[in-house]
UniProtKB/TrEMBL annotation:
Species of origin: Pseudonocardia endophytica
Keyword Cytoplasm (UniProt): no
SMART domains linked: HTH_MERR (SM00422)
GO MF annotation terms: DNA binding; DNA-binding transcription factor activity
Record protein name field: DNA-binding transcriptional MerR regulator
Domain of life: Bacteria
Amino acid sequence: MDDDGWFLIAEFARRCRLPVSALRYYDGVGLLRPAYVDPATGYRRYRAEQLDDAVTIARLRAVGTGPDVIARVLAGGEARERALAGERRRLAGEIRRLTDGLAELDDLGRAPVVGDPERVLLEPEDVVAWPFTAAGDELAGTIRRGVATLRTRLRRRGRTVVRWGAVLPLDVGDTVSGHVIARPDGGAPAGPDKLRLPGGEAITVVHSGPRASLASAYRVLLDAAGPRAAGPVVEWYPVAASGPSTPDVTGIAVRTRAGDHSSDSPRMNASTLS
């Protein structure tokens, strides 16, 4: 540092424990411009008050934060708080994804438990619904967000949920459109988010294990339904679950076309499956 408080780039890098190449990169993306560039030599010079910003940038880069978000953090004020909150949500989502991945690896050595399929006659049922369209590989996270949204809405109405679920198409593509659903105590209140699940003939099965192993239950379900499987599919999760990635019991029902009903088939609501 010279007598006027200026640092050449190498001196500045030494003090913030960064390589010179990192400072050049921060300059290139507009995050940390040198306080002065000598027009004759091209030497970059920095001020001592820029050290804190350099360290902040390095810490955010270490957790994968992008330059645009870092710029909002450096701007300070409300923009900084919103950016940091957004990054916290991003990292929390990554942790959930990695935790689910670890659980999936552990579960590969354990066979899921699938009950025997049962032919039933479903009664019509009113539920509270949250519509969604999501990429197929983001379905579990989308359903979790739907559960959180419906939980907030119903709490504001003073209602307690007794079962969570999802209405899904029979065939899953690159994107999936459906509804996250909730059956509150006392039935679904009137409103634009009310959805009626139609009654009719269905095949049901109960699966015990994580969502990633549900394909084994669908195989049993669709083998039993045969060509009469018509959809949609309704999945029901335990009320204590935070979403479908929670390892637990899941009830699944697929509607079937008319003509598959036997008079001795039990009558039931889909939400009593699991």
